[in-house]
């Protein structure tokens, strides 16, 4: 009921009352991890009430906070707040210069410097993590050039200020390019029905139909029928 009210009425005072109530039930004490955990859980409640006040929300919950790389509550809130970030930022007055530079093919260093002039993103760790998330989302929209996004992420693996974001950029490059049409299939080994280990590499140059299934699942059973047809 609270969530529906927050969403429908943009009721920030209610979000504050709910958070205060939760805080009275679960006081933080001196546990800094729990304090931060509650901060980012509260962010999700306020996000319901502040959907039209995105800058204010980012400023309140993220701009002055370090990126909590090992905190699930942080990533839940971060991913909700910054999903499809370019779609929002490119249309905002603060993101106009960034959008122009991005469209003109500016390198990562220039884009980072432009974004740093925005008071929301003066922290290196937050700015770099937001940019990685934005590039990841942009890759799957089909609107932006895939090679450009890969190039920017590659530049981030070398030039980002924070080693955590350099590592994150490498992981995203791997994710968006894995199993992509035209790339080499990852290595795979399995036991055949005779108990012999077979490798996907053994079939290089041949057509391979690979399916992961559960024999008690209805949809998988239907696929087994298709597999028999393919075999024939």
From the helix content, strand content and strand pairing, which structural class follows? mainly alpha
Summed over residues and divided by their number, the pLDDT gives a mean of: 91
Distance between the terminal alpha carbons, to the nearest Å? Answer: 57 Å
What integer value in Å does the Rg equal?
A: 23 Å
Specify the oligomeric state. Answer: single chain
List the helices and strands in order: HHHHHHHHHHHEEH
Number of strands: 2
Largest sheet: 2 strands, antiparallel
Query: What is the beta-strand fraction?
Result: under 5%
Shape verdict: globular
- Low-confidence parts lasting 5 or more residues at pLDDT below 50? none
Percent in helix: 55-70%
Strand order of the largest sheet: 1-2
Helix count? Answer: 12
Describe the protein's architecture and organization.
It is a single chain. The chain has 232 residues and is mainly alpha-helical. 60% of the residues lie in helices and 3% in strands. It has helices at 2-9, 12-25, 32-49, 54-61, 72-82, 85-89, 96-103, 108-116, 124-139, 146-159, 163-177, 218-231; strands spanning 189-191, 197-199. The longest helix is centred in the first third of the chain and has 18 residues, at 32-49. It is globular and about 65 Å long.
Brief synopsis:
With 232 residues, the protein is mainly alpha-helical. Helices cover 60% and strands 3% of the residues.
How is the secondary structure organized here?
Elements: H1 2-9, H2 12-25, H3 32-49, H4 54-61, H5 72-82, H6 85-89, H7 96-103, H8 108-116, H9 124-139, H10 146-159, H11 163-177, E1 189-191, E2 197-199, H12 218-231
Antiparallel strand pairs: 1-2
